[in-house]
Write a structure and sequence with these properties.
By secondary structure, this protein is an all-alpha fold. Helix content is 85%, strand content 0%. The chain contains three helices and no strands. Helix 1 (7-54) runs antiparallel to helix 2 (58-104). The chain is rod-shaped and about 75 Å long. The N and C termini lie far apart (84 Å).
Amino acid sequence: MVSPFDSTAITHGIQLAVAPVFLLTAVSGMIGAVAGRLGRIIDYGRQLEQRALASSDAAFVDRVGQELRGLRLRGRLANGCIALLTACAVLIGITIILLFLGETASLHVSSWAVAGFLLGIAFFLLALLCFLAETLLATRVLNFSLPRA
């Protein structure tokens, strides 16, 4: 049996845990990017709402209402993306703990570590799909045509 203070086992455990740590770095960067997008969605929605409340033009208020509904959907997608990324980070963190404990304490947790890692990757992929959907919705409303003079 390996002693919990065996430096070779601890070193090997750290080496096993390093790869998932890089994934955590990617996940945290992605959370920051999506949180920034969500902040801009919220700020723009508040601006639109204030302009609509100050306007007496019914057509403008209707257009703002449609745009706010689109922003609400984009916000929900961003929230879902952040939730999936957070779940991914938790699962990858648990995987790191399991890998380290499995190596240093001779616990038989390799199947749990594999399951946690694969589930974390699945959540990361789902988050990427949410991010893609949100960006597609954001660019759908772009209209670069200028009125002709």
